[in-house]
Design brief:
Blueprint: H1 2-9, H2 15-42, H3 47-84, H4 101-138
Helix pairs in contact: 1-2, 1-4, 3-4
Length: 139
């Protein structure tokens, strides 16, 4: 996900199509892997509560990332563009942001957040590696 968002940041022509396919595949893989990872790491006793927490994390993340971060940056870029094109704006016309700058900063921030999530996942992998090696060696 991080690489696809960085690809969008560099503003390659047609990048949105490639980014959409990669991001959709990553989200699909996430929802296929997470239930088994949660049950494996935390057990089946509290699986229902943890899975509900993970299910609620998606709309909460959407609210924070889309509703606060992405919209704030988009509005900021729109104000910058409208200040330079003040003479061409007519009454009642909505402010619109043009170009890749509208979302490239947002995608850069999200790319860094995805990279941080990847690093945290690798830490969990490293910490549980010995446990699983002992578990599967004895069986």
């Amino acid at each position: 996900m991080s690489c696809s968002l960085l690809y969008y940041v560099v503003s390659a022509p047609g990048a949105i199509y490639i980014v959409s396919v990669v991001m959709g595949s990553c989200y699909g893989a996430h929802w296929a892997i997470v239930p088994s990872a949660v049950s494996e790491l935390f057990g089946l006793k509290s699986f229902g509560a943890l899975y509900n927490f993970l299910t609620l994390a998606t709309p909460a993340g959407s609210l924070i990332f889309s509703g606060v971060i992405a919209s704030g940056i988009y509005d900021y870029e729109t104000k910058i563009q409208s200040a330079t094109n003040l003479n061409t704006l007519t009454d009642g016309e909505a402010l619109t942001c043009y170009g890749t700058i509208c979302y490239s900063i947002t995608c850069g921030i999200f790319s860094l957040l995805c990279l941080m999530a990847f690093v945290l996942s690798m830490i969990v992998l490293y910490r549980t590696k010995r446990v699983y090696a002992k578990l599967y060696r004895s069986s």
